[in-house]
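Colleagues,

Please find the record for the two-part complex below.
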Amino acid sequence: MTEPPRRRGRPARAGVAEGPGSRERIVAAARAEFAGRGYDRASIRAIARGAGVDPALVHHYFGPKERLFAAAVEASLAPALGAPEALLEGAPEGLAERLTRFFLGIWESPVTREPLLAVVRSAVANETAAAVFRDLVSARLMLPIANGLDVPDARLRAELAAAHLVGVALLRHVIKVEPLASADPTQLIALVTPALHHHLTAADGAQPTTSESSQPG
Amino acid sequence: MTEPPRRRGRPARAGVAEGPGSRERIVAAARAEFAGRGYDRASIRAIARGAGVDPALVHHYFGPKERLFAAAVEASLAPALGAPEALLEGAPEGLAERLTRFFLGIWESPVTREPLLAVVRSAVANETAAAVFRDLVSARLMLPIANGLDVPDARLRAELAAAHLVGVALLRHVIKVEPLASADPTQLIALVTPALHHHLTAADGAQPTTSESSQPG
């Protein structure tokens, strides 16, 4: 609540080209602000203050608020966005387990969970934030994985696999429904992997109930 | 935006026992207020105004804010909360498809989707709202379905099935990731049903990859 030091008169334009590391400081301050206040209520002015820079510099680097949010989301999702290549290496039969283990693993540690949670909260609350999240996750996570699949409707199936993992994270870490919230991660991975395997390989795993059970009852 | 008629002076205590339908009007006003402003920012005073009653009557019927939220959530989830019994009737092999069809169906119509969305937004943003949502869904939705399953870890498996459906609804209707957002509902049901069937029957559907692929690579 302490008032930050303010320059008098109009912002010094010279300050816009401020020293090394200011871009990184802005992104770090933006992550904290978006996490703490959500997309709607986050303020560029507060982010600039947090980074120790002039608001004009924030605009100079990032333009409008959603571009700054995109940079913050990208930094928050960095552990996940770098994953597809490594996950796609190795035997295809193991992909479902590698994906499940990796993705649920990110949510197990508070260090990697909190930034994800903040992003999900903003995306659920605000349509602009949802669009930023969607475009980033589509291009950097879903598309590479879908391209690595050898199934019809690969894109849709990759998204259904992702939907399952997102739902587990949500019920376990946000809604905290029991016994899921306290379940052993190893058990979870063992239970979720075959469901993902079904999506990623189009092996119709369990008995195909769809055609049979659609008879009029 | 029109100002409702106000009584002068302190609220008339006699008004606390107000006429028929006031409870229902309060719940309807609460649903609108929670949907529009989220749990955190929803105001009891605005809800009372919306229902055309004294704030004291709101407190008289519902006590603290989270109890009013619970009533609003229960009303919003009514289409889902009444479902378990009907879904559990019929052949167990068809349960996965009935659940998938029913749950994804609720999200297809804006009339039933919007109240659900509002509840999910509040639950994701606020821990008290999450707890209310969790307790209601656990007791009224998860538990009856788990009790109808003949598998080990029935409760956990019912929750994993729910997690999958929630994740699909989230990516399709909130994040709106393509092609999932525009996919034909019939195709979605066909793709998701076998994954749910795996959870609900413990039939290890696809090839069991878990044990094999955990060899050091």
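Chain B has twelve helices and no strands.

Comments are welcome before we finalize the supplementary table.
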